[in-house]
Amino acid sequence: MAGKFSQIEAQVQTQAQTLTPQQLLVSQLTEMPVEALYERVDQELKENIALERDTDHGDEGEEPGSTEQQDYAETSEATDYSDYADLSGLSDDVAPSHGADKDIPETVVGETLSFYDQLEEQIGFFHLDDHEQELIRYLIGSLDDDGLLHTSLQQIQDELEVYHNINTSMEELEQVLSILQQFDPPGIGARTLQECLLLQVRRSPDHDSPIKQKLERLLTDYFDSLMLKHWDRIQRGLRLTDAEVSRLQHEVRRLNPRPGSSMGEALGKNLQQITPDFIVDTNPYGQLTLTLNQGQVPPLRVSDDDLTFLHGYEGRDLKSLSRSERDGVLYLRERVEKARGFIEALQQRRRTLTDTMHAIIRMQRPFFESGDDTLLRPMTLEDVASQTGLHLSTISRVSNSKWVQTPYGIYPLRWFFTSAARLQDGDAVSIRNIKAALQEIIEAEDKKNPLADEALARELQRRGYDVARRTVSKYREAMGFPVARLRR
Predict the structure, then answer these.
(1) Which of 8-17, 220-229, 269-278 has the highest mean pLDDT?
(2) At what angle do helices 231-238 and 210-221 cross, to 10 degrees?
């Protein structure tokens, strides 16, 4: 297990590397759902005079933001932006979708999972053995409604040993808690408000930026002063300008002291307006098709007039120009470079989303072909990262913020990640398979003589599932089935 946690620590250290402004922009755009992306693009169009809608893009009469997916070929034009996902170099597992544009309506989805259920879903993002899963589930169950852990690890260790016959150590609980603190939203599993806020700062993509470094030092060294709002003392201690104080105050207000509240506090009360980011369907030939939804996001390009203007100054010594002329050239050159960077970031977002969804479809193809969730195979963030070559944190951002529409319903991408259990022959199987078999056994039992958990475990073992009675009890309770005497 030490090796496993060393690997996780290495991943965290890798995340700590400084991001360039372009990498940060790509990260921000990748995390955005399609509606937020449209607002961000609209804002950029208003702020950058060198960026404009590409009205000549696509076939005549094609609407901006078309969701139809086609094969995408990179061009030598750095400012080209296609609405369509890049399918180059991918296998025949998923075919590009051709034909008329798809109508992708906004869907109202009732979040039927509680805050605790949503956290348990993320367990499948990590490679954890059965013992570690028991520990992390107990930690999740010990969280308060605000998402913080106010029960001491020593008390949790005692409860596990006395009431659940589970032996663990403080070191192991600390290690498992460090994994829980990597769950979304950032701040989950913190033991104090200070730790909660620091986790959020350290998990932010730009946490190595100067302002975030100052924010981390503020939370580390001047937390008591912050709680008392002694900003004059903070300003003197950190040697801040008035502008930096204002910026830090803004950053502090963006932090969430109750991360659990952002996940919905009760079953079925959190209704969301969902626009799916992907559509997976089948074409007339029975092939799976993948469509990336660009919503109302228009195709973009760098202004031809601005490029022509700058082209006229190529090779000229800027020192020979008047000050106003030189300032104009430098300003426009900066705007053009920023426009190119924004278009490139959008292209990278498209490739990242498509590569991630392709990997999920490849690994979960039986489900996408049949809709049978018992055919979902165990899959973690690491599995998708290794398939795509993308960073683990990138896969996490995509999976926690995107939805896919299928013929069988609309699902958050995180739904496709599931922990592994073991068959008696040693093969891995999704926990959903065991729960489906358990449901089938309970529904078929003699209602006058229902099976106790020990008998349910034996029946599952007879079917090849290597599960203990305690595990059966946990699954049965999670599925909403009462104990045997209450099922008569």
Answers:
(1) 220-229
(2) 120
The percentage of the chain sitting over the pLDDT mark of 90, rounded to a whole number, equals: 25
Could you please report the per-residue DSSP string of 154-194? Answer: HHHHHHHHHHH-----HHHHHHHHHHHTTSSSTTTT-SSHH
Check if the beta carbon of residue 416 is closer than 8 Å to that of residue 161: no
Opening angle at CA 324, ends 322 and 325, nearest 5: 65
CB of 402 within 8 A of CB of 409?
A: no
Rounded CA-CA distance 237/227 in Å is: 15
Q: Which residue, chain included where needed, has tokens 């490029």?
A: 307
Q: Hey, how many other C-beta atoms are within 10 angstroms of the C-beta on 357?
A: 26
Element (H, E) at 209: none
Are the beta carbons of 438 and 475 closer than 8 angstroms? Answer: yes
**If pLDDT is split at 50, 70 and 90, which confidence band does 482 have?**
confident
Tabulate helix, strand, coil % of the chain (nearest 5).
55, 10, 35
User: Whose CA is closest to 47, among 303, 328, 335?
Assistant: 335
Is the whole-model pTM more than 0.85?
no
How many whole angstroms separate alpha carbon 135 and alpha carbon 189? Answer: 13
Per-position DSSP letters for 54-98, written without gaps between them: -TT-SSTTPPTT----------S-TT---SS---TT--TTEEEP-
- DSSP class per residue in 354-372: HHHHHHHHHHTHHHHHH--
Residues 259-297 have pLDDT tens digits of 887 655 443 344 456 788 999 988 878 888 999 988 888
Structure tokens, 46: 């208003």
- Per-residue pLDDT tens for 353-396? 999 999 999 999 988 988 877 788 888 888 899 999 998 888 88
Determine the Cα–Cα distance for residues 210 and 290; give it in Å rounded to an integer. Answer: 41
* Mean of pLDDT values over 108-120: 63
